[in-house]
Design brief:
With 341 residues, this protein is an alpha/beta fold. The strands form two sheets. It has a six-stranded parallel beta sheet, with helices on both faces. A six-stranded mixed beta sheet has the order 7-6-8-9-10-12, sandwiched between helices. α13 links the parallel β9 (277-282) and β10 (296-299). Helix content is 45%, strand content 15%. It has 14 helices and twelve strands.
Length: 341
Amino acid sequence: MTETAPRPTLEAVAARAGVSRATVSRVVNGGDGVREPLVERVRRAVEELGYVPNQAARSLVTRRHDAVAVVVAEPETRVFADPFFALQLRGISKELTAHDNQLVLLLTEGRDDHARVGRYLAGGHVDGALVFSLHLDDPLPELIQRAGVPTVFGGRPGWSDGTTDVGYVDSDNRGGAREAVRHLVGLGRTRVAHITGALDQTSAADRLDGYKDVMGDADPRLVVRGDFTPAGGERAMRELLDRCPDVDAVFAANDLTASGALRVLRERGRRVPEDVAVIGFDDMLPVAEQTDPPLTTVRQDIEEMGRLMARLLLRDLDRGSGGATPAGVVLPTTLIRRASA
């Protein structure tokens, strides 16, 4: 066994820098009132000794934990299988890391997990929370409000409890859907269908509304419910072809749904885009560029959404409890044209 060297202490840093222990404490904990030459001496001593501040002691001074909970309201099987979550988490992680904050990932599988997450947030372990993939009947917003934790949501909030002053980051789902459907109509397609996402989420509802903005008088049989998954896209596409065999275009609620729809169209002998044009939503490159044919889709900057969520929360935390809640931000979308439409 090897002996572990003792950790450098605050007193050791003070001795190396030739200053008082109180001065070192103010510098390492971000306090004011220390002249710049002394700050530089302390920082140099910290680096030379490899001193790491005690987080518990630092929290007593700063009242910050430098940790943010990221709450994904989905089971882990969905989170780790869907590239959307990986991209959003990457954006969040990059922004938190740039500000020396830790990411604490919390997933919810069921009601017991909601209660566990609520207790954790109320326990004072983190400075704030980033929450996304909420469903309309999700109890998390109420639990988070009860915990009193500063929060930014991913996606437009859809609950109807009268709460409007919440920070969120979303994409222009409705506008992006309109652009996709207009493109299909512009190609001369007359039987344009829509495979929805999970309609208990605002992103899916907004994309359905965008479809209806363009195809308001369309045959209602052309709208089939999906769930944002490839399997859901396959099931919905089979149902759609059985209902409306003359369908000549499909706007899918996301790229994974579109990938499932493409598989079924190929199985049924329908050529894409000659017989049926297909457009997705997200522009997740691991999916959109590898479908057969490559997928025309509506691009939203998923990683940037994650970064912006973290940026808004950290800005709110830096303002302190008296700061204003960050406003909602809606990012633009862009139609990316490939071979499927």
